[in-house]
Each structure stands twice: as C-alpha cells, then as structure tokens.
C-alpha cells in the first residue's frame, strides 16, 4: 500500500513528530498524526513489522487524542482514535445485503473438482478457463460497505439476505481500514466480503490468559470470532485479536452508479491484490492462479498437507473462475455461484454415538465425566473418548447415552463435543445420571456453590493420591525420568507407594521392584537416577508438583522468583502475598489454604527428610545467566545440536523468552534444516535475525 519512498517519508515524519515538530496550524499537525498512525497500523497489522515501539506509538496516539479533545469540531469520523465508538450499540440492527451473500457448493475430492471443471467447460465452450485458488478461512463472514472512501457499514452474513449491523465492532479491527482510496480506482461505493478470524497462536494465548484469570476458555476460534463480532461493547472485540481477510468484492460502482466489476476490475486475482494495495488484509502468498483443473487439484492437495502448519484455521480451499466476465456469463443457481466451489478438507467434525460415561477422579478430587464414543476418524486420528468437563456441560449440551453427537477438533485444541444430534434423541437414549459417590472410594461427593465440579473430599481417596503422584512426577512438574503414569499406577497397586514422599523411598525397594514383570537392573537404575536428580529441581517445579490450585507453571515461576524457599509462602499473610507481583486474590487465597493444612506441611517435611531441596541453592538454580534477557526466540526446522525442549530450557535459563509464532515481536529465529513457512515469514520481517544452531550456542556461550 505504501511505496518505499512513501514509507521513508512517513518514517521521517514520525521521527519529527516524536521529537516535537512545530506546526503553525494545529489541523496540519492533526492530519500528519493521522497519516503516520495509519501508516504504523498498516505496517504492524498487515506487514507484521514495526518501525516504532509501543511506547512511541502510544505517544503519537496521545498527541492526536489531545488535539481532538481540545478541538472537538476537528474530529474526523475515520480518525484512528474513533475506532471505538462512544456509545454501546443498542439492539443489533438488521441489515439487508444489497447483493445476497450466497454460499458455495462443496467438493470433496479430485473427481468432484473435475466435474466442476467439466460443467464450466460446457457453459463456456471454446474458452480457456483460469482459476484462482485460495484458502477457505474458517471464521465468521462479514460484508464491509465503503462509500466515498469511508467505511460506513459492516454486517454479518446472517441468513445471506439479512445480517446484523456490526459496524461498531468492525471499526476496532486494525486490519479493517476506516478509509481507503477507492476513488483513485474510480469506485465511489463498494462492498467487500471477507472472513473474520483469530490466528491460532493468538487464540492459544487468549485462552491461556483467560485460564489464568479463571475465565471460561473458548472452544474454537470460529465461534469466538463470531461471538466477539456480535457483542455490544467494542472494547471486548478489540481485545480478542480478531483479524479480517477480505476475499471477494460483492459489488462496486462508479459515481454514475454503474458497476465497475468486469469493466475496469477484470479479474479476481488482481482485484484482491488491489484491495491489498489499498490497505486490506487479503490472501496474498496463499492464493494462486491455476491454468487448469490439474493445477487446482495439486494446489488443494498441497494446502491440505500443510494445513496444520498455517497459523489460521482453514477448512478447505475456494476455487474461483478468475475472469469476472466469465463469472457473469455462468451466473448462479438459487443457492450457489456456478463459477466457484469450495474444496473441503477431510472433516475436523464427525458424528458418532455416545456409548458410555466414565467418571475420573482428579488430584483435587474433582470428578470429570469422560464420554466413551464409538471410535470415529477425525482429521487424521481416531477419537474414542472426549472430556465432558462437568455435570453442567452434559445438561447444556442435552447429552444422553446412545445419542449421536458431533465431535470437533480445531488447531491443536483437543477434541470436544460441539453438539448433540437432536434427531437422535429417541426412546433408545437414556438420561445421564451424575454419580453421587466417588467412583474410587465411594464417599459422598460435594459441590460447593459457584463451583462447576463435584468433588471427592476424602483425604485418603486412593484415586486422588494416584493423580497427585502422577502430577508431581510429570514433565511439567518434577519431570522425573522413568516414572510415568503407568509405572505409578502399578507401584500403587503393589503397595510400593501411597503418597508423594514415598517416591524417594523406592531406591530402598530394589528387590520388590525387580520381582515385578518387565523390571531389570537397567530400568531400576534409570528410575533411581531420575528420582535422585529430581531432589534438586528448580523450586518452581516443586511448586507446580504440589498441585496448589491456580498455581500452574507460569504462576509457579513467578512465585519462585520472589521467594528464598518454599516455607516463605507459609509465613506470608494473604496481604503480603497480594503485594507480590502478579498475584491475585484467588492465588493468594489458595496458597494460604494450602499452607494452613497440616497434612500439606507434613508432606513438605517428609520430602525434605527424603532429601528434596525446598530452597534455592546452587544445584537447583535454573537461570544461569541473563545474556538473553528481553530477547525472544523461536526454533524451526530440524534441530541436530539439541532437542526442542533443551532449546527452550537454554533460552529460559539465560533469561530469554520463547514465542510460538513469527511476528514483529520476534528477535531471533533459529532455523535448522528444512525450515518451512516460519523461515519464509521471518525473512520478510527485517527486524528478525535468522541464525543457525551454532550461532545460537555462541549467543549463550
Ligand atoms: S467466496 C459467492 N472465498 O465460506 C462466493 N468464501 O459458503 C462467496 N469463506 O461463509 C464466497 N473463505 O464466508 C469465499 N476465500 C474465500 C472464503 C470464503 C471463507 C466462507 C464464506 C462463506 C463460506 C462459503
């Protein structure tokens, strides 16, 4: 959208504004501020680059805001400060689409695509047909209306004829320009169509943050995008990382109200590129011109194979006749355009029968119902059981035994039941009755007000102890080599361990262990070495291992940095805990509860007696240096010098942070052999340093 020389000029203007450039007319200053802020929005949100830091951006924004507050009559409706409107929207207004938003016909394999091509060959005899193929984004569709270069309305697809007015929310999306220079292209009114999505890494982070705040996590990015767009308060939508990919022009007219589609705008591929040049987010490297259906099939297959590595949810590809005049000639049926078709990837949604429910006891005593399903293939794996979370979930989804349910899987989110097939709720189905007693120890379950879980509160419940020990030894906690779930269950059955501290007495039980099936000197040696090594693990690992509610890895790391030893936390009052950085009332309260329980103190004493260090010391101090402080890293491709886990450990040990995706926030991409899309993306962002494994090791030497 900005040429190199324009960018240079705007960068220069930014520097001048930040260093207090003098203006004689405040309006000129305001216009310059608007120009540079728009430019930096474009750079950051569309190019994933940043030439100024957050603080500088905030300064420019504050300067503009100040001028506007002092001169309210100057405020332009498309000023960057006007993204969030003043009033909350009342009841959602209904919008009638000028051109109905019809849906696409589907195809599922190469034969379907060939038939689509044959149909078109018949409708367009003796014409060569070129296709444009692009991803089918799995989000929420929107229509944006621009009049005289200004965004005047945004609407959801709704039923295709009527949608909901969501202008207030669309305005907060920085990937949607509030103004765009359509006039330059001879367009005075244009409707664009696209999909609002949330990138996978952003969605993951959004859920992690919500979990930390004890808010309900979202199930998939599609529903989150659609729900966020329809909320009344745009500040909510602004905080959910929504982005809009524009993939189609609904209609476009010149000042005489004559359509320019097929006239000056000749083909789809160029139209999308034009939108990109005007500042919209569009499929760019993701789309391709295919000269024949074989090329279309190959491109669809290529994307199906790399679908999981793409940072956005896509459920297929869309194949479009590229030439608009040809599109017009073939037209549409009542439901679908004849010139386009969706090629659907193998389902990430499946329908299957709910056979049974198993109730699992967690380490906190919470009972989790787990649905046993008739095994069903879903995007490459077979699903036979999924968590149902709690009793409320079963009721909300109207689940019954023997009913058919839909199972979905998106991104790296685990499979879940999205809905029951209501037509299957016949006499053969049975009500699900949540148990009143613990499936392990049979004691009465309790459910406290405002809690969603039923819990077993018996301190001696074997299932609870089993889960606590498994958690203590797990990778994310003490990471004890050789002591996995199955071995712990076996040892518990044999009476070799009952509680966490018993782990450290296993070294004395060589004869009993060697007498068990499958155990040899070597495996015993590995186990005891793993256990011995865990006696000096970082303090945060012990904190995680103790299973204090609301204290996960991130919180434990924060806590560990602020204490000398575990017992500090026992000494501290809730007030003192609340003074610590990032500790909220929930965490403070559960730490206080944990340490006021006698049996927990007893457990800590036993661990100590058995040789586990509960204070920071030379052997368990994880961070050895700060050479990478403030630096962000991402590893990609095949690593040969260290594993990915080790790489993470090395970065963190040296004060750096690992990021999950390539963005302007990334400082170093460490690329091994056969690095793919991440490397490509990083090469386009000038601020990222691309280094190999050796160079990385040099950094921390
Ligand atoms: S073109 C008339 N292109 O897929 C053709 N649709 O049934 C209009 N979608 O919900 C659609 N990515 O929102 C088109 N690149 C893409 C798309 C796309 C996602 C959605 C669209 C609609 C559904 C089509």
Instruction: Determine Rg (CA atoms, Å).
Output: 30 Å
Task: Report the sheet-strand fraction.
Answer: 15-25%
| Average predicted local confidence, pLDDT | 90
Q: Please state the second-level CATH architecture of the largest domain.
A: 2-Layer Sandwich
What would your notes on this structure say?
This protein is of the alpha+beta class and 701 residues long. It folds into five domains: 4-83, Helix Hairpins; 114-290 and 319-334, D-amino Acid Aminotransferase, Chain A, domain 1 (2-Layer Sandwich), CATH 3.30.470.30; 349-431, OB fold (Dihydrolipoamide Acetyltransferase, E2P), CATH 2.40.50.140; 462-609, DNA polymerase, domain 1 (Orthogonal Bundle); 632-700, Rossmann fold (3-Layer(aba) Sandwich), CATH 3.40.50.10190. 36% of the residues lie in helices and 18% in strands. It has a five-stranded mixed beta sheet. Strands 14-13-12-15-16 form a five-stranded antiparallel beta sheet. Strands 5-4-7-8 form a four-stranded antiparallel beta sheet. Strand 17 (445-446) and strand 18 (455-456) form a beta hairpin. Helix 2 (26-47) runs antiparallel to helix 3 (54-70). The longest helix is centred in the first third of the chain and has 22 residues, at 26-47. Bound molecules: 2-(butylsulfanyl)adenosine.
Helices, strands, pairings?
Layout lengths: L3 H15 L7 H22 L6 H17 L23 E3 L9 E2 L2 H14 L7 E7 L2 E8 L2 E7 L5 E3 L2 H4 L18 E10 L1 H13 L8 H9 L4 H5 L3 E12 L14 H10 L10 E3 L2 H14 L7 E8 L2 H7 L9 E5 L4 E13 L5 E12 L2 E7 L3 H6 L7 E5 L7 E5 L24 E2 L8 E2 L5 H12 L11 H9 L16 H5 L6 H13 L5 H7 L7 H9 L6 H4 L2 H6 L5 H11 L2 H12 L22 E5 L7 H10 L3 E2 L9 E4 L5 H7 L5 E3 L1 H8 L1
Parallel strand pairs: 2-11, 19-20, 19-21, 21-22
Antiparallel strand pairs: 1-6, 3-9, 3-10, 4-5, 4-7, 7-8, 10-11, 12-13, 12-15, 13-14, 15-16, 17-18
Helix pairs in contact: 1-2, 2-3, 4-10, 17-18
The chain binds 2-(butylsulfanyl)adenosine (IVH).
2-(butylsulfanyl)adenosine (IVH) binds next to strand 3, strand 8 and strand 11.
